[in-house]
Amino acid sequence: MPPGSAASRSTKAPSCFSVVRQEGHRQERRKLKHYNLDAIISAGYRVNSTRTTRFRQWATQVLRQHLTQGHTLSQQRFEQNAAELEVAPTLA
């Protein structure tokens, strides 16, 4: 990617979103930065430093937790299990 191209700018600059939050009895509007997850992950796996090593360890741990605790679902497995559950009462 040449510097200054649309693709290189999209990975560097975060998008800003305005979010309204309830704080006590008042509502506060704040701007939150959202970064491109694909860009963060690809940079974290291409650079070698102690900081990126910690990132890779953290990312692996979070991914493992999501998969083992069911936070991340396989749509195909979900639909198959739902179909099996619908058939189960007729078998009893």
UniProtKB/TrEMBL annotation:
The protein here is known as DNA-binding protein in cluster with Type I restriction-modification system
Q: List the Pfam families.
A: Virulence_RhuM
Top-level taxon of origin: Bacteria
| InterPro entries documented for this protein | Virulence_RhuM-like
Native organism is: Castellaniella defragrans (strain DSM 12143 / CCUG 39792 / 65Phen)
Disordered: annotated span = 1-25
Xref: PANTHER family: CYTOPLASMIC PROTEIN, CYTOPLASMIC PROTEIN-RELATED
